[in-house]
Amino acid sequence: NAGVTQTPKFRVLKTGQSMTLLCAQDMNHEYMYWYRQDPGMGLRLIHYSVGEGTTAKGEVPDGYNVSRLKKQNFLLGLESAAPSQTSVYFCASSQNRISTEAFFGQGTRLTVV
Amino acid sequence: EDQVTQSPEALRLQEGESSSLNCSYTVSGLRGLFWYRQDPGKGPEFLFTLYSAGEEKEKERLKATLTKKESFLHITAPKPEDSATYLCASGGYQKVTFGTGTKLQVIP
To answer: Taking CB atoms and an 8 Å cutoff, what residues of chain A touch B94?
Structure first.
């Protein structure tokens, strides 16, 4: 049972480049989330999804887009990367509501130069 | 605005030296208070959910407690493998707010 899997684990981008982070979960969870984690700050929610075909903005959505075409996958896109988007990104999922235990992936360390 | 403050930022303990981590929270309509463990280079791993004041939960050397304004993670006789960052999060109706964590180091 893999849980939540993120691809890739590391990436370096140049300013202005685009990329997509992939998250896959095999627990049949309805809710999925993208967070970023920066030194000295708590995990901050970027976007989330409450089910297949739905997405919603979180606390820090600017500069990111998401899609949830299949229940098990949640994609995070950066259209034009900026140095301020250098961070560690975590995908998470939960069964049926926001305020419940979440299962996290291992993270993607992104550096924008 | 929902807010979670954890203290101390870092804690260094000798093996076997018990201590407590603090999580102060303000949230309108608490749906759950969560504790996670995060190892370096890994994602957070769920430990506990507490729902109401007075509730306690235990797992091995860890015990989490909850009051109306704070939660404590008590670590009894810690071992080096307990070294990690411990995250607290408050769950409201439509939002979960994370603290910045307490980095625990247990020295043999």
So the answer is: 98
Residue B3 DSSP label: E
pLDDT averaged over every residue in chain A: 95
Measure the CA–CA gap between A48 and B59, rounded to whole angstroms.
Answer: 30
In eight-state DSSP terms, residue B54 is T
Interchain pair A42, B46: CB under 8 A: no
Q: Tokens 């797992």 correspond to what residue?
A: B59
- For the stretch A19-28, pLDDT in tens is 999 999 999 9
Per CB-CB distance under 8 Å, the chain A contacts of B92 are 99
Can you count the helices (H) and strands (E) in chain A? 0, 11
Q: Note whether B46 contacts A102, CB cutoff 8 Å.
A: yes
| Beta strand ranges found along chain A (DSSP E) | 4-7, 10-13, 19-25, 31-37, 44-49, 56-57, 64-67, 73-78, 87-94, 103-104, 108-112
Pairwise CA distance, residues B1 & B92, whole Å: 11
Which of B70, B62, B63, B79 minimizes the C-alpha distance to B6?
B70
